[in-house]
Design brief:
Blueprint: H1 5-23, E1 27-31, E2 34-46, E3 51-58, E4 66-67, E5 79-85, E6 92-94, E7 98-101, E8 107-109, H2 112-123, H3 131-156
Antiparallel strand pairs: 1-2, 1-8, 2-3, 2-4, 3-5, 6-7, 7-8
Helix pairs in contact: 2-3
Length: 159
Amino acid sequence: MNLDEPQLGIAMVNLAEKARANFEGREAIFIEKGALRVRISSISGSTSQAVITANVEEIPTPGLGVGLLDKESRFFRPRWKISAGFIPNFMTDISDHQWHMGYGGWSLYFEDRIIRGVIELASRFPAEIDTMQRYDLVMEYIIKEEIKRRENNRQILPS
């Protein structure tokens, strides 16, 4: 997409409005080499910086805080700010139930079935598995749920 700077800023503000309408104040599963249950707030867009920002706050959940977001990790913080811009390969992707910060960045899953499924899964983690194994199990669950959703959407579409 070839947009000049003013168009780029306007595009990001429009995306921020969509994100705010869909996700402001909602809980989600946050993924970035780890997994946490979080609440999203203060979503805003900047025309001058062509970026969307939001505040993220952990919702303490038994079994969660896995991978690099384990509470014992030096990367763990209970509150932080995320941002996503319009750099090629790092473009933010906002749907009705998900928000991804481009290639290899963070992801937020807002679908109730994914949130409840991850909470249930985390509540049953055996004590003997380490935090990275727990993260792998969360990712495996989310991937399987995404495959199911895509298959269901294909079945609904007319031939």
